[in-house]
Amino acid sequence: MNTIQVNNLHFSYTPGSSVLNGIDLELDQQTTAIVGQNGAGKSTFVKLLKGLLYPTKGEILFKGKNTRDYTAASLAKDIGLVFQNPNDQIFKNNVISEVMFGPLNIGQDDQEARHNAISALKKVQLDDKLDTNPYDLSLSERKMISIASILAMNTNIVIFDEPTMGQDFAGKEKLKEIIWDLRDQGKLIICILHDMDFAAEVFERTIVFNQGNVLADGPSREVFKQKNILQQAHLEQPSITQIANELGLDGNYLTDEELIQALKEKMTS
After folding, report:
1. Whose CA is closest to 59, among 101, 97, 11, 105?
2. What CA–CA distances, in Å, run from 40 to 19, 45, 115?
3. Which helix (H) or strand (E) holds 13?
4. How does the UniProt record describe the way this protein sits in the membrane (predicted)?
């Protein structure tokens, strides 16, 4: 079971300056968006999940075992993290070597690693760039290369840090398909986002962080209707929700399709 239990989690980079303040969460099979302004503690939180940092107080349990008791290598086999900035992740001089690095590092043989790398590159539609230097690609393409690098590792848990950064509509649609495909494979998907529209449309569960605390946690539809809570976290409701409110529609709408259907029903009633 790909479940992470977070108990009374505290973290500080320096004494007397708390970043996370007693977080209690269970992360299960629901696709989960973590939203909040810069400085809310989101990126620190996922680094703790990945084992890149250790709690100042409290614990994180994966498969019932404290993450402090795992080696970095053993966690890497189960938890993949796509960095916010692909330039912090990419360091090889061609695409295929970059995407194969993670799989090889967790014990896949050369043949398996290459097969998984090419399969992952097909998913991000960059399998024609195998011999290209990643830094000859655009920012959005480098972001996709960093995503492919984690997909090729076939981890049970995939964490995305701001995956929509630098992506146009087509890129976001591609990301949506990748996330839903991972969900259908039974993987736990966690995503840090500033994009409320993408969070509302794609993720089943949304957690709102603010100043190291959880302000709201629940089904995305329920969280995004709590305008006051979102404002407290300096966030806005999704665009579709705002438009529906301006049009005086009853209900809570998160997608274009829902809004269009509501308008059709209003016109015919």
Report:
1. 11
2. 8, 10, 39
3. strand 4-14
4. Peripheral membrane protein
Residues 6+ apart with CB under 8 A from 54: 48, 67, 68
Q: Supply angle C-alpha 163, 116, 32, rounded to 5.
A: 30
Asked whether the CA dihedral 153, 157, 159, 164 is positive or negative, the reply is: positive
Range of lowest pLDDT (96-110, 126-140, 242-256):
242-256
Which is the CATH superfamily of the domain at 1-71+156-237? P-loop containing nucleotide triphosphate hydrolases (3.40.50.300)
pLDDT digits (tens, 9 = 90+) for 43-99: 999 999 999 999 999 999 998 899 999 887 889 999 999 999 999 999 999 999 999
Dist CA 58 CA 79 (whole Å): 20
Section 254-268 average pLDDT: 86
Q: How many CA atoms lie within 13 A of 46 on its CB side?
A: 26
Domain(s) labelled CATH 3.40.50.300 in the chain stretch across: 1-71+156-237
